[in-house]
Design brief:
mainly alpha, single chain
Length: 58
Amino acid sequence: MNLKSDLIEPECDRFRRKCNFTKDERAIFDLRVKGRSIIEISCTAGAGTKRMRGRAFP
């Protein structure tokens, strides 16, 4: 799923309001919406991709 192309901004805002993300989950969500890959995020966060997939979004 490509959050950047699959969701429009009002949908992203709805997820932000309703999903009760932790601070880390919200940061990951925002990066995914901007088009960053799980691998890019995991490298900058210092976490493995398996951990990222378990905490965030495909």
